[in-house]
Design goal:
The chain is of the alpha+beta class. About 20% of the residues lie in helices and about 40% in strands. The chain contains two helices and nine strands; from the N terminus they run βαββββαββββ. The strands form two sheets. Strands 4-5-2-3-9-8 form a six-stranded mixed β-sheet. A three-stranded mixed β-sheet has the order 1-6-7. The N and C termini lie far apart (about 40 Å). The model has no long low-confidence stretch (mean pLDDT about 80).
């Protein structure tokens, strides 16, 4: 007898560093209604680029991801480019920023903010 396991696809996953940073930025603002929106737009040196913003409003079309005490929003257009991606927060010589590790990206630019599929 074999056991079949099913699992919903992970749209966007947060690393512990990213979740902690989202929670601390929300706490700094003193507004628990804030959520991190992750989106994809055209442009950048590789064709598409990632964007991040904090927002209170959730639209009916947004995908809402609750993970590790933080909330992410993904719009329908960006959803198709972010399935399976991981959001991380890094601090290095280039500065402190959110970055996305996207298994669907075939190429990325040197700074990691743009990609192509």
């Amino acid at each position: 007898m074999s056991i079949v396991q099913t699992q919903d696809p992970v749209i966007v996953a947060l690393t512990d560093n990213a979740a902690d940073k989202v929670k601390s930025l929300v706490a700094e603002e003193g507004n628990p209604a804030l959520k991190l929106r992750v989106f994809v737009t055209g442009g950048g040196c590789s064709g598409f680029q990632y964007g991040f913003s904090f927002e209170e409003d959730v639209t009916d079309e947004d995908t809402v991801v609750h993970q590790k005490g933080a909330t992410l929003l993904v719009d329908p257009l960006s959803y198709q480019y972010l399935v399976g991606a991981h959001v991380d927060y890094v601090e290095n010589l280039e500065g402190a920023r959110f970055v996305i590790n996207n298994p669907m990206a075939s190429t990325t630019c040197g700074c990691g903010s743009s990609f192509s599929i």
